[in-house]
Design goal:
Layout (H helix, E strand, L loop, with lengths): L2 H6 L2 E5 L3 H13 L3 E5 L5 H8 L3 E5 L7 H10 L8 E5 L5 H8 L3 E4 L4 H12 L1
Parallel strand pairs: 1-2, 1-3, 3-4, 4-5
């Protein structure tokens, strides 16, 4: 199977209430060959994860309606979703250790991030 075919079989959910950031992330990952869906709020993340069954979730911490750490913790506590890797993204550079301890995120990516760094994180978790 071709490398892009493997990527195309991987589904990624991007959750960020900043439309520009969400669209850039989605564009970059789609251009890498991944199947990408996006959400602009936190209230429907858990239901969407159950429906889409993504291979990776990229989740902003500061959503307008919910704290991404709470959503991550909820996903990691449910048996049906606990194995799905979650990359927490945030402009607050002091949160990596707090996110790891409080919500069991698999990885942390600080905004602004280099797009190649984003792709590297996703590739590693999608492998």
């Amino acid at each position: 199977m071709e490398r892009n075919s493997l990527k195309a079989s991987k589904r990624i959910l991007v959750v960020d209430d900043d439309q520009d950031i969400r669209e850039i992330i989605m564009y970059i990952l789609e251009s890498e060959g991944y199947h990408v869906s996006g959400l602009d709020n936190g209230r429907s993340v858990v239901d969407t994860v159950h429906q889409l069954k993504p291979d990776i979730v990229l989740l902003d911490v500061q959503l307008g309606d919910r704290d991404g750490r709470d959503i991550c913790r909820e996903l990691k506590e449910e048996q049906a979703t606990q194995a799905i890797p979650v990359i927490i993204i945030s402009a607050n550079h002091g949160w990596p250790s707090l996110c790891e301890k409080k919500c069991n995120a698999d990885e942390f990516l600080a905004k602004p991030f280099d797009l190649s760094e984003l792709v590297d994180h996703v590739r590693r978790l999608a492998a």
